[in-house]
Amino acid sequence: MSDTIVRVLAKEAGLRGMACITTDLAREAARRHAAYPVAAAALGYGLTAGILLGALLKVQERVALKVEGDGPLRKMVIESDAYGRVRGYIAVPDAISPRHVDRAAVSAAIGANGIFTVVKDLRLKDLYRSVVAMEGGELDRELTNYLNTSEQVPSLTEIGVHMDEEGAPAVAAGLLIQTLPGHRYRALDNLTASTDARPPLETWLYAGLTPEEILARVFEGIPYTVLDTQLLRFQCSCSRDRSRQALKLLDPEDILALLAEGEATVDCHFCYARYEFSREELEAILREIETGGGIV
Known about the structure:
By secondary structure, this protein is α+β, with helices and mostly antiparallel strands. The chain has helices spanning about 25-30, 35-55, 105-110, 140-150, 185-195, 200-205, 210-220, 240-245, 250-260, 280-290; strands spanning about 5-10, 15-20, 60-70, 75-80, 85-90, 115-120, 130-135, 155-165, 170-180, 225-230, 235, 265, 275. The chain folds into two domains: about 5-235, Hsp33 domain, CATH 3.55.30.10; about 240-290, CBS domain Like, CATH 3.90.1280.10. It has ten helices and 13 strands. The strands form three sheets. The protein has a six-stranded mixed β-sheet, covered by helices on one side. Strands 8-9-2-1-10 form a five-stranded antiparallel β-sheet, sandwiched between helices. α1 (about 25-30) crosses α2, α2 packs across α3 (about 105-110) and α9 packs antiparallel against α10. The longest helix is centred in the N-terminal third of the chain and has 18 residues, at about 35-55. The radius of gyration is 21 Å and the shape is globular.
């Protein structure tokens, strides 16, 4: 099953919803970062949260999510956009994992205390930035708290990640339901009550349900319309050319120091891609800096 997100609209009930499967994203991130089980699970939660936030954006808009807790994982950064593209990294991917990695283990690894930061590029003059205190380290609850308090949109969020026996993500999924402007909260309250009474989201996914089938169960008895289905992918914006431009930001003395070492290596935190520059390439960059051909 490919990673996808499905959006629906229940106009009469005053609700919009979306469900996504993010298993491949979680596995790809865990592979790229050589993440130990608890870090791999946390990345699954974080990437799914990023996908849900990105699905609320308009075209050409982007969002960054930063989670900084007092647990051993320390920090996680996720970036996504309106096109279903996401990338992310975790500060300590090799954090020691407990024998059994579940929701509680991930929450403890993130930490009960910290800050949850959302930064949006809405194509305006200034970036939108919101910082809220964390309340336990469960990322879906932190995301719900952010949406309810900072954006003041009554929301229900659930994220689930189930790990296999070898400590890799077996399934990952997310669900987001929001009240439409001008509507009462009763329909959302009813869905929240039914969510508390049913099995966890990852259990449904592990049983083979698709995002469409998950939404059908969540909205059982509530008429809704499927708006669209979008493919999701782990995609990083780094490149060799961008890494070269970053080197051209350095002072000539820094380039000379790299020349003394014989080469330079630029690593991307998000995808772990590595770009190597030879002595000849560094000499060319130094000449461009000294002749005023630096940043374009």
